[in-house]
Design brief:
Among the domains are: 144 residues, Rossmann fold (3-Layer(aba) Sandwich), CATH 3.40.50; 76 residues, Orthogonal Bundle (Rna Polymerase Sigma Factor, Chain: A). Strands 4-3-2-1-5-6-7 form a 7-stranded parallel sheet, with helices on both faces. Strands 9-8-10-11 form a 4-stranded mixed sheet, covered by helices on one side. It is globular, with a radius of gyration of 20 Å. The chain is built from 18 helices and 11 strands. By secondary structure, it is of the alpha/beta class. It binds nicotinamide-adenine-dinucleotide and magnesium ion. Nicotinamide-adenine-dinucleotide (NAD) binds next to helix 1, helix 6 and helix 10.
């Protein structure tokens, strides 16, 4: 059996660590090429040493001396910064995990596809920012993208052996996040700590807060549209507080196929890692008799303005996805920094969308990495200005 060359971008994060957990259990099958991280240099160095990676990269140049010191005496190269990340993504690999959080994952993901690697895509933001570019790059280079978001992995699995032309609708489930049972009046005063704890999933802080606001689900609706090429009106969101049914695919004969599993990201990561095979995974087995009942309800649109914004973004098209994502990322930064309230994230994002969508030369520019990066910058600046205006 030949060794598979694998790289993990965002290795120190929640998805990255779950990926490492699976690889570590079966280390003899894998040759680890690159591991990347951010500020968590000690963790990065520990994992790179243990997995005997070729190179470890921190996103931050100021952290390079620390990473070098932590890797001293090992065979692992130390590198830092955006260019180093791109260089590492260009190293031949069979399988690359894209698990950086935010739009920063786009350029390395494109680079990985350009050299024909299979890209396991957790970084949903890159599909929201530049879905067509990502899909076309994969096609042009004979590379494959495998979804890692749990809902999209579930849809992908329900579609095995099926034809997308026979799909009537795709239903992605949402736990409803931390505040699903809170009265609306309380939402604006929700604290960072309250928004940072998820009822079912253990994830990075940013996606956890995005789950409470449903911005995460809004991104996932757009991700569904971009990845599976179904029309916006074919995509439904269903609140399912237990997070056991991850998605359902409805076919034109009315049949619904669904994927169920314990809320453990190693399911989706493992499926992408072993695809098209299925191998044993160390995840809990569902006992439905113990679960007893599955609960579903329609999402409350007043509570979750992000879902309406996703519809508007898909209807507008062009580069509006990049604006939406960048404005949301910046609004989230400001919420984390304590400058704005929980509901302000949606208001700010909506304002930025309105102001940039009024500029067709920007929104309707060709979808290139350069144009996406430029509009991403402008959207972040517009979000900063909107926050300044609000806070005085
Ligand atoms: P995380 O915050 O736990 O980890 C993020 C990783 O990205 C870290 O390694 C960090 O060092 C790195 N990083 C952060 N900013 C960077 C930058 N500017 N440049 C380069 N690297 C940077 O995040 P996570 O929860 O693991 O999520 C990662 C991605 O997977 C996100 O796109 C998220 O939406 C998606 N996702 C996560 C889950 C989950 O269960 N955590 C589920 C579905 C999808
Ligand atoms: Mg998801």
């Amino acid at each position: 059996m030949s060794m598979r060359r694998v790289s993990i971008f965002g290795a120190t994060g929640s998805i990255g660590q779950n990926t490492i957990d699976l690889i570590r259990r079966d280390a003899a099958r894998y040759d680890v090429v690159a591991l990347s991280g951010g500020h968590n240099v000690a963790q990065l160095a520990r994992d790179a040493r243990e997995l005997r990676a070729e190179v470890a990269i921190t996103a931050y140049e100021a952290r390079l001396p620390e990473l070098r010191a932590a890797l001293a005496g090992s065979d692992v190269e130390a590198a830092a910064g955006t260019q180093a990340l791109l260089e590492a993504a260009s190293r031949p690999a069979d399988w690359i995990m894209s698990a950086i959080v935010g739009a920063a994952g786009l350029a390395p993901g494109l680079r990985a596809l350009e050299q024909g690697s299979t890209l396991a895509l957790a970084n949903k933001e890159s599909l929201v920012c530049a879905g067509r570019l990502l899909m076309q790059t994969a096609k042009a280079h004979g590379a494959r993208i495998l979804p890692v978001d749990s809902e999209h992995s579930a849809v992908f699995q329900a579609l095995v052996g099926e034809r997308i032309s026979e799909v009537e609708r795709i239903i992605i489930t949402a736990s409803g996040g931390a505040f699903r049972d809170w009265p609306m009046e309380r939402l604006q005063t929700a604290t960072l700590a309250e928004a940072s704890s998820h009822p079912n999933w253990d994830m990075g802080q940013r996606i956890t807060i995005d789950s409470a606001s449903m911005f995460n689900k809004a991104l996932e609706v757009i991700e569904t549209h971009e990845f599976f090429r179904v029309a916006p009106e074919q995509i439904e969101v269903l609140v399912h507080p237990q997070s056991l049914v991850h998605a359902l695919v409805g076919f034109r004969d009315g049949a619904l196929m669904s994927h169920l599993g314990a809320p453990d990201m190693r399911h989706a990561i493992g499926y992408a890692l072993h695809w098209p095979d299925r191998r044993h995974l160390p995840v809990a087995r569902l006992d439905l008799a113990t679960v007893g009942q599955l609960e579903f309800r329609a999402p409350d649109s007043a509570r979750y303005p992000a879902l309406r914004l996703a519809q508007e973004v898909m209807a507008r098209g062009g580069l509006s996805g990049a604006v939406f994502n960048a404005a949301k990322e910046r609004a989230l930064d400001h919420f984390i920094a304590g400058r704005i309230g929980f509901l302000d994230m949606a208001t700010i994002t909506e304002q930025v969308l309105a102001s940039l969508e009024a500029q067709p030369d920007l929104i309707d520019a060709a979808m290139t990495l350069e144009n996406v990066t430029r509009i991403d910058d402008l959207a972040r600046q517009a979000a900063d200005q909107a926050v300044l205006k609000k806070t005085g």
